[in-house]
């Protein structure tokens, strides 16, 4: 049994479970699955949570395996410079206070700001690991290579902590956002910590036709439809989907669109709702909110096509879930998924031409794909991803490898 101090952002899904009474974490499974297994295995976990929203919040924990006494502190991290400085100081002080009051075997930081807990770990000589769920550094570098110059990096202090400070390990999700490139570019001394770049796991549910139809009826799904799973964030490109729907409506194509995902950027979500009205497509665009994985799986199975057209990277949880559930996958090329998807064999790879996507959907409506493509998608899933139980246990084994109790 380990005593672990989790210092973490209030990730989407986890935030709803902490503050809105949700009974499960529907979002960022690579975070939620691992935390749940660590706790339910009998380890003692305390949490310091970083609240990135612009409003103060109250605990309303719906998770049966997290108790209020485990939450040491909620640190409010606002977007103003003064607020960020105050929050950083509060976070560091809170971590020091925690390690002085209690003996911990490991400190696990999730996210860049959470990396500030490394100072408390050093003070008490506690093994420290950091977990990043992708990065935007590669995207920034493509737009301007100077962003990763030594001169520019001094402004990215949290990235310096993640990629240069000595620790047990740095684990980054291989989601196509090129955390491996960021590591190679920034880390000067590769002996300071173990670097790991892991693909997430995925659950392959064997849902019956009756189970799928039950979910179909629950949400009154109108066929035919395309399915788009993503939290509402500008780089997820829900607005592009709306313009595609409008063009297909103009061309007399009868297709509905269902969005599933948490509202993380309220201003962008507001723009999307407004755009639906402006484009006059309210009769064919629907918002399902944050669904559980079983519901997502069923809708992937039922959809004419499931799409991922994100700007930064597409080798994400959603992409793996599409393949695992035998969806007809349409994904935007990003330099990574290009090697995974073979057009017409296990899905479709597309660029930035909306007409290309419209033609694929029209063809699917005229002549639905054979079962071979869906089965090939599943075979591709097995080739690239482990099941979540295996992937979770590997991460827990990594923590045990460095924890004081080993």
Structure annotation, total helices? 16
Radius of gyration: 22 Å
Q: What portion of residues belong to β-strands? A: 15-25%
Low-confidence stretches: none
Secondary structure category: alpha/beta
- Percentage of residues assigned to helices: 40-55%
Ends distance: 10 Å
Average pLDDT score: 93
Q: What summary fits the major beta sheet?
A: 7 strands, parallel
What's the number of extended β-strand segments?
13
Going across the biggest sheet, name each strand in turn.
Answer: 3-2-1-4-5-6-7
Provide a concise account of the structure shown.
The protein has helices at residues 14-19, 29-40, 81-101, 118-123, 137-143, 150-153, 157-164, 179-186, 209-218, 238-250, 266-278, 293-302, 317-324, 354-366, 371-384, 388-402; strands spanning 3-9, 44-51, 71-76, 106-110, 128-132, 169-173, 194-198, 225-229, 256-260, 285-287, 305-308, 329-332, 348-350. The chain has 406 residues and is an alpha/beta fold. The strands form two sheets. The chain has a seven-stranded parallel beta sheet with strand order 3-2-1-4-5-6-7, sandwiched between helices. Strands 10-9-8-11-12-13 form a six-stranded parallel beta sheet, with helices on both faces.
Could you please describe the fold and organization of this structure?
The chain is α/β, with parallel strands linked by helices and 406 residues long. Helix content is 41%, strand content 16%. It contains 16 helices and 13 strands. It has a 7-stranded parallel beta sheet with strand order 3-2-1-4-5-6-7, sandwiched between helices. Helix 2 (29-40) crosses helix 16, helix 10 crosses helix 14 and helix 13 crosses helix 15. It is globular, with a radius of gyration of 22 Å. The mean pLDDT is 93.
């Amino acid at each position: 049994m380990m005593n672990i101090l989790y210092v973490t952002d209030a990730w989407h899904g986890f935030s709803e479970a902490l503050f809105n009474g949700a009974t499960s974490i529907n979002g960022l499974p690579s975070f939620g699955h691992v935390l749940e297994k660590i706790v339910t295995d009998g380890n003692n976990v305390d949490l310091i949570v970083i609240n990135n929203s612009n409003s103060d919040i109250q605990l309303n924990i719906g998770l049966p395996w997290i108790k209020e006494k485990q939450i040491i502190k909620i640190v409010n991290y606002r977007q103003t410079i003064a607020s960020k400085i105050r929050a950083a100081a509060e976070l560091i002080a809170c971590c020091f206070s925690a390690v002085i009051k209690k003996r911990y075997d490991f400190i696990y930081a999730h996210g860049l700001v959470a990396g500030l807990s490394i100072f408390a770990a050093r003070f008490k000589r506690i093994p420290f690991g950091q977990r990043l769920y992708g990065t935007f550094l590669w995207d920034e570098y493509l737009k301007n290579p100077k962003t990763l110059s030594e001169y520019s990096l001094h402004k990215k202090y949290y990235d310096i902590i993640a990629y240069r400070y000595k620790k047990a390990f740095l684990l980054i999700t291989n989601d196509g956002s090129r955390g491996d490139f960021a590591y190679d570019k920034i880390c000067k001394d590769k002996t300071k910590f173990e670097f790991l770049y892991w693909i997430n796991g995925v659950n392959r549910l064997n849902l019956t036709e009756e189970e799928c139809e039950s979910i179909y009826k629950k949400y009154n799904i109108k066929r035919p439809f395309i399915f788009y799973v993503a939290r509402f964030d500008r780089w997820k490109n829900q607005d592009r989907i709306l313009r595609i729907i409008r063009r297909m409506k103009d061309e007399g194509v009868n297709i509905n669109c269902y969005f599933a995902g948490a509202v993380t950027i309220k201003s962008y979500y507001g723009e999307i709702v407004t755009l639906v009205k402006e484009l006059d497509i309210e009769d064919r665009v629907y918002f399902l909110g944050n669904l559980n994985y079983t519901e997502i799986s069923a809708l992937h199975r039922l959809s004419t096509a499931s799409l991922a057209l994100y700007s930064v990277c597409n080798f994400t949880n959603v992409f793996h879930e599409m393949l695992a559930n035998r969806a007809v996958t349409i994904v935007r090329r990003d330099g990574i998924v290009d090697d995974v998807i073979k057009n017409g064999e296990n899905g479709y790879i597309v660029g930035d031409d909306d007409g290309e996507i419209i033609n694929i959907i029209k063809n699917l409506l005229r002549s639905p794909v054979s079962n071979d493509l869906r089965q090939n998608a599943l075979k591709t899933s097995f080739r690239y991803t482990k099941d979540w139980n295996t992937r979770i246990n590997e991460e827990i084994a990594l923590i045990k490898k460095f924890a004081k109790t080993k």
